[in-house]
Each structure stands twice: as structure tokens, then as C-alpha cells.
Automatic annotation (TrEMBL), chain A:
Annotated CDD domains: TM_PBP2 (cd06261)
UniProt key word Aminoacyl-tRNA synthetase: no
Protein name as annotated: Multiple sugar transport system permease protein
Pfam families attached to this UniProt entry: BPD_transp_1
Organism: Oleiagrimonas soli
InterPro entries reported for this sequence: MetI-like, MetI-like_sf
UniProt family annotation: Belongs to the binding-protein-dependent transport system permease family.
Domain ABC transmembrane type-1 as annotated: residue spans: 69-258
Chief place of localization: membrane
From TrEMBL, chain B:
Family designation: Belongs to the binding-protein-dependent transport system permease family.
Gene3D superfamilies in UniProt: MetI-like (1.10.3720.10)
One Pfam family this sequence matches: BPD_transp_1
Name used for this protein in its record: Multiple sugar transport system permease protein
Coiled-coil boundaries: none
Localization terms from the record: Cell membrane
Keywords attached to this entry: Cell membrane, Membrane, Sugar transport, Transmembrane, Transmembrane helix, Transport
TM segment ranges: 74-96, 108-128, 156-181, 202-227, 259-287
GO biological process, one term: transmembrane transport
Source organism (scientific name): Oleiagrimonas soli
Length: 273, 293
């Protein structure tokens, strides 16, 4: 009997917490289907009386949401692909190739993790301005193309590749490039998936830097556009919720599909190296 | 051997080049910039740029806006970090409990806010905490309580942002705590049980000490994340009401990219960096004394 009570307490509290975690998201979804003005009734309704897609239609037809979506998608995809190549190569080199100063260089990189990105933002803006990259996709991606965290993650994982395997390939006369592509990359596949999800989510959700570097509206990513829209149209609750759904849905779906990889990477990235 | 060393540098070159140009150079440049009076005139013509030494830093120490932004940020950090850690440790303990059912479903639900886009989630919260039509006040009136002017009252705005941060970040810390809890050897609990230790005593003398390194790591991660608060006030309160939610980075953004005082903005960024570095180092030192790390 006592056990039964404890079980109700534990699971009841968890149900309560889960509800609090999900409630704002469910409410957002519900309001996004309400007729304009419905959400500002008293008392605030929980479900749409007459569900409609009008908010989504208006967002895409009048507010250019399709363009912002495409910007976000392109930037996140290209940034993910490029950073995968660079981070994988560097992480592998730090884990498995010998060269003078390897440990010291790696320690220096890890030391760089304590520097907050904002310290670099003002000069980076000036540098990109000088290079003509302000208000371009490449400008948004610049700080994402290589990440110390990504290199660290790959190195942690690549250390488990047996040296004998690489030596055997070298004795067979394979070049370093071929070894990397044909032997190492297949072995790194799980971390490639994890890192890809991480980078895509980080790029998609990024706000401060895109806000700074994107100056013309047609180049906005979803978060920048949504922040601007919600400042302009405070009253359009229903449309803003539809905008929030469009912004969140792709990353939430990606997370739900790839949850196992994501959580694994999160734990791998947090252990002390 | 020589060709292999060459190969190593070939593998590193792209990453190091990009990091050098887009990270190392700007960080060094940022410090240099913070020693100049870079303003809109310098943006137009570099001849207007002057070296002023520590002038920006000294000016900063006399700006009331800076002190109030620092105070607001510290409020967010000092209240938000312990609250987030307590809530996420509680969630992890519950998830790890042997009586817990639907383990995976709970974990996914509690983690979901972490992956949502910060701006979009902030927009949603802005409406949930709307004074007239928001659900938060709807709930309060349902309980027979008076409505609260969550985002319009300077006393309530920061607590509301802290609630939002706890909601958004709880899942991340929870996962790290969960891993820490699961790595505690079951024999320790067995021994405590044989000794007849009560649940609170077991928690205090077994769980908590064994969780030491995880607590330290989660603490430092949360701390540095909260010091960098920007999106929350930008989207939810626009720094208001009465500047009560202007954070250090919000000030940096306005100095730098609204007024184009890039020299002053760089000084603000470095001040924040130094503060974060000092506090993190202090924590690490404290933990080392206690023998955790």
C-alpha cells in the first residue's frame, strides 16, 4: 500500500512536470488554428472553435514566410555540410595522426571554449564588411563553419579507432586521404549523424549573430523574421503562434526522429576529455 | 614519416584557417577595438579612429546603464542558475526512481523545450504571460487569485524571464544529471540500505557526493549560458519595463549595432568575459579544494 502511494506520487509529479513542459507548445499549436482575434477573448479559449489554416496561409502569402523558411533551410544545411567536413578532418587528425605540438595545440583549442562568441562579434562584423560578406548567407555561416566543440566531439569518438587498422592500410600502400575516406569515415558514422543534428539545430535556432549580420529583410532567417514580426504585430496572436509553429516544427521533428543520436552526443560532449 | 606529418597538417589546415580568420583574429581584434573610440564616424572613415587606451573601460565603470545591466544579469544568473539546477536535479531523481513508469515518454516531454527555437518559444511565452489574455493569469483567476502584470511590472518581469529559462533549459541539465545518477555504483546504495540509512540520508551521503563532478560541470555550463542572456529580453520584454530586463549583452547589442559604438561594445563584451572567467575559475578552485575535480 505504501509502495502504491509512493508510485502515485512519483508518477503524478512527473506527469505534472511533463504537462508544464508541453503545455505552452500545445497551446501554441492550438492558437495557430484559431480565427484572428479569437485568442484575445475572455476567458482565453483553449481550443479553436472553428479551426482554420488562414494564419498559415497569410504568413506564407503576405509575410514571406516561405522565403525565410528557405533561407533558414539553406543556411542550416550548407553550414552543416561544410562544418562536418572540416570538423571531421581536424578531429581525426587530433585523435590519430602524430605531429609535433599536437597536445599543446589541442589544449589551446579547448582553452578557447571559455571565450564567449560575443567577444568576437564586433570585429567579425567589420571583417565581414571589409570582405563584402555582410548580409550574405556565408556571413551568417562564418562562425559556424568550424566549431571547437565539433572537433572535440570527433576526437573523443575517433580515439577508439584501433591504430593497427590504420597501420595495416598504410602497409598496403593506401594514402592518408584514402584511409580517411574508406576506413575512418565509415567507422565515424554514428558521430557524423550526431554532429550533423547538433550543427543543424544550432544553426537553425541561432539568433543573435544572424540578427546582427543580416540587414535586408529578404535574407532573414526564421528566428530573425519571427522576432521582427512579433515586435511589429503584437496584436496578431494567432498569426504569431503559426509563425512559431513553422519555426519550431522542423527542429522538433528532427529531434523526435533522431533522439537517440542527439542524447548520445550530448553525453559524449559533456564528459571530461 | 615526413609525409605523414604533412598529411596531419593537411587535415588540420581547413579547420585551423577558418578558426583563425573567423574566431582567433576577431577575438584579438575585439580587444584592440575595445581600446579605441570606434564610433559611427570611424565606420564611415577610419581616419576618425583614435586609440584611447582603457578609456572605454573607465567610462563604462561610470555608466549607470552598465551597472544596472550588470545587476539585472546577476539577478538572472544568481536566481536562475540554482533554480534551474534544483528543478532539473529533481526531475532526474524522479526519472531515475525505480517506481517510475513511461520513462522514455517523460524524458522526451521534459527535454522537448530544449530543442525548440529560443525565439519562437519566447514569442509563445510573451503571449502566455500577457496580462489580459494570457493563460498564466487565466490560471490565477481560476484559482481565485489576483492577476499579475507579469511583463509590465518591473518587479515581475525578471522573475518571469527566469521561469521561462527554467522551462527552456531544465531538460538539458536533467539528461546530464540522469547520466551522473546512473553511473553511481549500485553497491553503494546496497551498503547504505544494509546500514539502515533513510532515503534522505542516503541522498545526502551517497548520491550528492557521487554527483559532485556532474554538479560542477552542469553548474558551469548553466552559469555561462545564463550570463549570455540576450534573446529572452530582446523578444519577450524588449529590455523593459523601465529597463529592468536589459542584460549586459543587450547593452552590448544596442551600443554596438544600434548606435555603432563598436569600441564601447567591445569593452562591454570583454568585461562580461572577464567576469564569467573569474566566477568559473573561482568555482573550479573551490571544487578542487573540496576534492571534487
Amino acid at each position: 500500500m505504501k509502495l502504491r502511494l509512493a508510485s502515485v506520487c512519483v508518477n503524478g509529479t512527473l506527469i505534472g512536470m511533463a504537462l508544464i513542459a508541453l503545455f505552452p507548445l500545445l497551446w501554441m499549436l492550438s492558437v495557430s488554428f484559431m480565427q484572428p482575434g479569437m485568442a484575445s477573448a475572455l476567458p482565453p479559449p483553449l481550443l479553436p472553435a472553428h479551426p482554420t489554416f488562414a494564419n498559415y496561409r497569410d504568413l506564407f502569402a503576405q509575410s514571406g514566410m516561405g522565403g525565410y523558411f528557405l533561407n533558414s533551410l539553406l543556411i542550416a544545411t550548407i553550414a552543416t555540410l561544410i562544418s562536418l567536413v572540416f570538423n571531421l578532418m581536424a578531429g581525426y587528425a587530433f585523435a590519430k595522426l602524430r605531429f609535433a605540438g599536437r597536445e599543446r595545440l589541442f589544449q589551446a583549442l579547448i582553452g578557447g571554449l571559455v571565450i564567449p562568441a560575443q567577444v568576437a562579434m564586433m570585429p567579425l562584423f567589420l571583417l565581414l564588411k571589409w570582405m563584402g560578406l555582410v548580409d550574405t548567407y556565408l556571413g551568417v555561416m562564418a562562425p559556424m563553419l568550424v566549431t571547437i566543440f565539433g572537433i572535440f566531439l570527433v576526437r573523443q569518438y575517433a580515439r577508439s579507432i584501433p591504430d593497427e587498422l590504420l597501420e595495416a592500410a598504410r602497409i598496403d600502400g593506401a594514402g592518408e586521404g584514402r584511409i580517411f575516406v574508406q576506413i575512418v569515415l565509415p567507422l565515424l558514422k554514428p558521430i557524423v549523424v550526431t554532429l550533423a543534428i547538433f550543427t543543424f539545430l544550432a544553426s537553425w535556432n541561432d539568433f543573435m549573430w544572424p540578427l546582427i549580420v543580416l540587414t535586408s529583410q529578404q535574407h532573414y532567417t526564421l528566428p530573425v523574421a519571427l522576432a521582427a514580426l512579433s515586435r511589429e504585430r503584437v496584436q496578431d496572436t494567432e498569426q504569431m503562434m503559426a509563425g512559431a509553429v513553422v519555426t519550431m516544427l522542423p527542429v522538433l521533428a528532427l529531434f523526435l526522429m533522431m533522439q537517440r543520436h542527439y542524447i548520445q552526443g550530448l553525453l559524449l560532449g559533456s564528459v571530461k576529455g | 614519416m615526413k609525409s605523414r606529418r604533412m598529411a596531419a597538417w593537411m587535415f588540420l589546415a581547413p579547420a585551423l584557417l577558418v578558426l583563425g580568420v573567423f574566431f582567433v583574429l576577431p577575438v584579438l581584434g575585439g580587444f584592440a577595438l575595445s581600446l579605441t573610440d570606434f564610433d559611427p564616424y570611424a565606420l564611415a572613415d577610419l581616419h576618425n579612429l583614435r586609440f584611447i587606451g582603457l578609456g572605454n573601460y573607465l567610462a563604462l565603470l561610470q555608466r549607470p546603464e552598465f551597472w544596472s545591466a550588470l545587476g539585472n544579469t546577476l539577478y538572472f544568473v544568481l536566481v536562475g542558475v540554482p533554480l534551474t539546477m534544483l528543478a532539473s536535479l529533481g526531475a532526474a531523481l524522479l526519472l531515475n526512481h525505480r517506481l517510475t513508469r513511461w520513462h522514455a515518454a517523460f524524458r522526451t516531454a521534459l527535454f522537448a523545450p530544449v530543442v525548440t527555437t529560443l525565439v519562437a518559444a519566447a514569442v509563445v511565452w510573451r503571449y502566455v504571460f500577457n496580462t489580459r489574455f494570457g493563460l498564466a493569469n487565466g490560471l490565477l483567476s481560476g484559482l481565485g487569485l489576483d492577476p499579475v502584470d507579469w511583463l509590465g511590472d518591473p518587479r515581475w518581469a525578471m522573475p518571469t524571464l527566469i521561469l521561462f529559462a527554467v522551462w527552456k533549459n531544465l531538460g538539458y541539465n536533467m539528461i546530464l544529471f540522469l547520466a551522473g545518477l546512473q553511473s553511481i555504483p549500485p553497491q553503494l546504495y546496497e551498503a547504505a540500505r544494509i546500514d539502515g540509512a533513510s532515503a534522505p540520508r542516503t541522498f545526502w551521503h551517497v548520491t550528492l557526493p557521487m554527483l559532485g563532478p556532474t554538479l560542477l560541470m552542469v553548474g558551469i555550463l548553466t552559469l555561462s549560458g545564463y550570463f549570455q542572456m540576450f534573446t529572452e529580453p530582446y523578444v519577450i520584454t524588449e529590455g523593459g519595463p523601465l529597463q529592468s530586463t536589459v542584460s549586459v549583452l543587450y547593452l552590448m547589442y544596442e551600443d554596438g549595432f544600434k548606435w555603432w559604438n563598436l569600441g564601447m561594445a567591445s569593452a562591454v563584451a570583454f568585461m562580461l568575459f572577464v567576469l564569467m572567467f573569474a566566477i568559473t575559475s573561482g568555482l573550479l578552485l573551490f571544487a578542487r579544494r573540496r576534492g571534487h575535480a
